[in-house]
Amino acid sequence: MDSVAGPSQPQASASQPRHEQGLKSEAEQEALQEHLLLLLGDSNLPTGGFVASAGLESFAAHGLLRSASAQTASAQMLSFLAASLASYARSVMPYLLDAHALAQRGADAADALITLDVHHEASLLSTAARRASIAQGAALLTLHSKAFAEPLPLARGLQVPQSAKPPAEAALEAFRMQLRKGKTAGHLAVCWGLFAAALGIDAARAARMHLFLQARAMLSSAIRLNILGPYAAHSLLHHHLRAVLRQALAACGAAPGTQLAAAAPQREGKEEAVRDEDEAQGWAWDWDDEGAWAAEEGGKQVGGAPAVTWPLGEIVQARHDVLHSRMFNS
């Protein structure tokens, strides 16, 4: 694969990351995306994901994961993962997909990204979940600036020439600047969508990778909490979680083959109050619950606006800070 684009080579399009300069075939672009996914799957990547248990520590401490054998422990852990991942995908993935789409607008998307991030902040009711999301979002933006934005200055002959920044990278930098000014929180889902777009990873791959890493982090937490052994955890990851992840992605409209909706979290026009026929209920709001988050698959609408599908998990996670002892920050 050519790593240097000379004057006679085709100019990279504005939507491509600088790392795609000189790519000539679809196969080479596919190989680049696979390479990036391998990098993001590295457990040594400093994103802070392994200091958060996503509510598992609190769930176990409250006695909701009772097991008399390794087999029942695995079954109960799988049940927890299925419920947690389904709720996480349904409540968080719309923000990731919107951030990815908004990034294509470049630096002009900063205000819309802040609005999206503020909306996400309001949707996270648990202090522990909010704290972990902000910490991991900041770590992800730092990772981009330190490792992915520019190559290391090496000796002559090893330099990688750089071209103009793509719009998605400009959007990420503009958002990071607003974060430094304290104008937004920088939640993980929004930062991940921007990060993936800046690297040129498509939205569907970004969503699948993000949810897989969420599942892997929870299983890592289960090992350290002595809920599962490493063999049982990886057995679940290999044999059972593939279907769980696909179902969770399908529920939020991010499964393979789904036509992802364009990003537009803000509604156009004002909602109008209408008179409800039930006199006891009084006034009601007549609005479209799905808004701009709807996606289509096979001509049918899937996904929808962010929503928590497992209230018990959110309530138990909110009690994380009152545990007598804690290993994780969420």
From TrEMBL:
InterPro entries: UreF, UreF_sf
Source organism superkingdom: Eukaryota
Biased amino acid composition, Polar residues: 1-16
Region of interest called Disordered, as start-end residue ranges on this chain: 1-27
Bias (Basic and acidic residues): 17-27
UniProt-recorded Gene Ontology molecular function terms: nickel cation binding
UniProt KW keywords: Chaperone, Nickel insertion
Pfam families recorded: UreF (PF01730)
Family from the record: Belongs to the UreF family.
Annotated protein name in UniProt: Urease accessory protein UreF
